[in-house]
């Protein structure tokens, strides 16, 4: 079986884990937590980083720290893992779902500006959605599949309409937008270290920000909002979202390997592109001139009329040959819990969802395994590789 994307633990993981066990520091206090935060902050180029138990917890924390309140609205990509949208609801706020653009499959900043200009208006100094009357507070762009979103149009619109930008960089640690790392583009950002991400802590996440007040707020909220540990005084409703030392130990070791992981992901992507780009009906992912993608999940579009079969059929045929593939995320406006959310002029996201298939692309994928995937796809297309 060739898996889609599995962890690659080839560095100091054992050594650092042993240090945790030998020193008895296994829980959410311990030297690796701080070290992981500092190392990640330095890799991303962000002044502050706060570790959390999951990427979803990081998103929730970032939205709260950014000042998102009950009944606010947050603009978010519909083409994303559902956690981005759920986190908005955890705050008691409401998502407004935005379309993707067709070139790099990221959130469409132009449509977003159009929504703000046409569908919102200023009432007593607050931007309100005309149709719901609610305050529009923030925008949550997602750097999807390892490629950065075209951030400048989103940042400009956010500036003009006074929205806070919260980046969901869960899938794109190491990616760059015009020489700047994802996770430093907006006011606050989050990362995930779930098992299938570019580096993993088993489960884990991180909030990054340049704003010390937001970092302090995030740290406070993730540690039960404790004002005084001796007297057990809590000043707000906080959360137990702190990463443990054991997980952080894995994180420190994995982060040492990040550059190598990105390099390998990019090699795998280039090899797929070479081998598949001439197949009719297959579109390989493009990297924008302003982007450095980490190609987290190598995803192709399969246009059924020209390829001869749709992505479901391709997925099934590859599965029969022991090759695991997966469609991308079903857009949020097609998910039961968000069926009532406002969705603004969405069409590209639906087409991408219908055609997208992610191919095996683990850091540890061998050339022989990749050749098997390539040959299987080429023979399905009616050609021998
Ligand atoms: C993985 C992921 C998350 C959530 O991460 P967890 O660590 O699994 O909670 C959030 N957003 C996106 C876009 C993701 O891909």
How many whole angstroms does the radius of gyration measure?
Answer: 21 Å
Largest sheet: 8 strands, mixed
The structural class is: alpha/beta
Strand content: 15-25%
Q: What strand order characterises the main sheet?
A: 1-11-10-7-6-2-3-17
Q: What's the end-to-end separation, in Å?
A: 20 Å
Number of strands: 18
Summarize the structure in words.
This protein has an eight-stranded mixed β-sheet with strand order 1-11-10-7-6-2-3-17, sandwiched between helices. It has a three-stranded antiparallel β-sheet with strand order 9-8-15, with no helix packed on it. It is globular and about 70 Å long. 37% of the residues lie in helices and 17% in strands. The longest helix is centred in the last third of the chain and has 19 residues. The chain has 385 residues and is of the alpha/beta class. α1 runs antiparallel to α8, α2 packs parallel to α8 and α3 crosses α7. Bound molecules: pyridoxal-5'-phosphate (PLP). The site of pyridoxal-5'-phosphate has 15 residues, from α3 and α4.
